[in-house]
Amino acid sequence: MKAMLRATWLLLLCFGQVHAATAEEADAQAAKALLEKALAYYQSNGDKAFAAFSRQGEFVDQDRYVFVVNTKGVLLASGGPSSALIGRNVSEVLGPDLNKSFKDALAVPEGSGIQQADYRWQNWNDGKVERKHVYYQRVGQRILAVGYYLPRATPEHAKSLRDKAVKALEKDQAGTLKAINAMQGGFLQDDLYVFVVDLDTHRYVAHGTTPRLVNTDFSKIKDPDGKPVGEPILAVMAEQDQGEYRYRWKNPVTGKVENKHAYLRKTGHLMVAVGYYSP
Fold it and tell me: What average pLDDT score do residues 228-233 get?
């Protein structure tokens, strides 16, 4: 009976992962198809196409829409909320990281075909800043683009990153702690990050987004509402080698306090944790 239940659980888990991958693949195909449609329309109509791109119609597909910038960074058309920026140099409203990626995209020579990039942008459906993947192509002095929002990190993503960190620590503890604190080595993946606590001293030894917490007392950590977080997590790890804990914490991507579900695992005298956020 237990074997059957385990097999059923594994099947459902695999189905969930396949479903997520299939959904993302469908989003990617739909975004690319919308861009190809816009490119064909622009080739036939030139800049007159901007009016069609900027209204609700055939060039808006759910949260996917066409937008156009010129090589100086001025937004010329948009079927999304960024339409309010039409006529402005978009780089003026972008953060440093996104601005660099934006300028790199503007520098792509004509004839390079469809290009791809990732960035973060506000989703007009839920108002949250989320990961977005964009397809774009330069035509003369214009760059036409369509993007789609990537799915949030899943419980499986969080567990996988936690286990990756555990294996790395067991192989090279000092090097892995250094990599986590330097936000390198793949231990920071959008809103997923690793933090490590010494169970003997109860102090942080690594944190994937806030290295200034290193050497501070984890047992005294509280959520934004003042509810203890560190103490109950340490209590969980005092009784078992791995566990889970739910609390409220600031999402480094959205900048908002959200529900967080952390997966914990002990390796030697260290506790490794990775959590995913949910709205």
Answer: 97
Task: List the beta bridge partners of residue 136.
Answer: 115, 145
- CA gap 268, 277 in Å, rounded: 27
Burial 176-204 (b: 16+ CB within 10 A, else e): bbebbbeeebebbbbbbbbbbbbbeebeb
Q: In which element (H, E) is residue 135 found?
A: strand 129-139
Sign for the CA dihedral angle at 137, 138, 142, 143 comes to positive
Chain segment 170-204, per-residue pLDDT in tens: 999 999 999 999 988 889 887 899 999 999 999 99
User: Cα(177)–Cα(21) distance, rounded to whole angstroms?
Assistant: 31
Give exposure, 38-67, as e/b (b: 16+ Cβ within 10 Å). bbebbeeeeeebbebbbeeeebbbebbbbb
What does the pLDDT look like over 38-50, one tens digit per residue? 999 999 999 999 9
**Closest C-alpha to 51, from 79, 31, 74:** 79
- Choose among 106, 125, 134: nearest CA to 27: 134
How many helices (DSSP H) and strands (DSSP E) are in the chain?
6, 12
Rg of the chain on CA atoms, in Å: 22
Kindly report the pTM of this predicted structure.
0.57
Helix (H) or strand (E) holding 14: helix 2-45
Cβ neighbors of 199 (< 8 A, separation 6 or more) are: 234, 237, 266, 269, 270, 271
Cβ pair 202, 217 in contact under 8 A: yes
**How is residue 74 annotated by DSSP?**
B
What span, in angstroms and rounded, lies between the C-alpha atoms of 119 and 108?
Answer: 17
Q: Which of 58-72, 139-153, 264-278 shows the lowest mean pLDDT across its residues?
A: 139-153
Whether 207 has a pLDDT exceeding 90, the answer reads: yes
Structure tokens at 9: 């659980």
